[in-house]
Amino acid sequence: MTPETYAQVSNLLIPTATVIYAIAMVSHASEWAMGRAVVKVDAKEQVLVASDGQPVSSGTATAAAGPVDHSSPSVRMAAASRIGVLLTCLAFVLHLGGVVTRGLAAGRVPWGNMYEFSITASLAVAIVYLAFVQRYRLQWLGLGVTLVVAAVLGLATLALYTPAGPLVPALHSYWLVIHVSAAAISGGAFTVGGLVSVLYLIKARAERKVLAGGSMSTALSRLPSAEAMDGTAYKVLAFAFPLWTFGVLVAGPIWAEYAWGRYWGWDPKEVWSLVTWVVYAAYLHARATAGWRGRRAATIAIIGWFVFIFNFVGVNLLVSGLHSYAGV
């Protein structure tokens, strides 16, 4: 196949993956819509442990113990969740194919401009999500993940598309692979951790209402406990932080010295990468030394996610600097 053919295949796969991610998002949205009904939850039995060791809601455990009613909201919600995850897997395969063929079309790693960064970073979000679905059963995060990935791919396709071409001179280094791959994977984990933290705040608020004698929607009752979600967010961010440290604050300066003759020059991208590191370092430090859990830790994680998003999008598109080629 010629580079032009690879480019055409990539240009077909990426929009197709975007559409399927959007359909998966609709499936997960219907899951939440079917769970709007309010159920009474016993505050003393909020969290049970399933046979696989994963926390489940009391409502889910009760449904599993009795006869299966295929018309019940819980069964229909579970079916919508499975469909959403399967569609996400299909979209991921197409997305991966689109990124690979983009690289083959350009004859290099596909990380040379903002369009390529966007399709690669969103692929990293999908990779981290699907990996943690397998490990920690994070399918309940599907709505947020598919929304973010579909939005990023849609923006990349409609507003950021750039034809495949050669790299700018500063990018001609094997440090490109090390630096960008580490930043993309850690960025995907930051996104997943941020979304988990958002849902943690929602679930924690619902649990406080239950303790006060209130009730909880079916959708929220199917989520793990707030405490379990807080622990999941910590695991995801603890995985991402050392990867970001190495890829951005170690490999990045080494590459900068190779490309520009200095390790650190307070370029806007460098500054905001450091700010991102400081916020997540504060998150991990607060949990380890001050015992911060719950709402305060989740708030820091969400702030860190927004700082990362600004670093990834805002700095590239709005601020002029040595990394401005990334917005091309």
UniProtKB/TrEMBL annotation:
Keywords: Cytochrome c-type biogenesis, Membrane, Transmembrane, Transmembrane helix
Gene: ccsB
PANTHER family: CYTOCHROME B_B6 PROTEIN-RELATED (PTHR30071:SF1), HEME EXPORTER PROTEIN C (PTHR30071)
Gene Ontology terms, MF aspect: heme binding
Pfam families given in the database record: Cytochrom_C_asm
Coiled coil regions, renumbered to chain: none
Domain Cytochrome c assembly protein: 111-323
Cellular component, GO annotation: plasma membrane
GO biological processes: cytochrome complex assembly
Transmembrane parts of this sequence: 6-26, 83-105, 117-133, 140-162, 174-202, 236-256, 271-290, 297-319
Lineage start: Bacteria, Bacillati, Actinomycetota, Actinomycetes, Propionibacteriales
Location(s) in or outside the cell: Membrane
UniProt topology in membrane: Multi-pass membrane protein
Protein name as it appears in the record: C-type cytochrome biogenesis protein CcsB
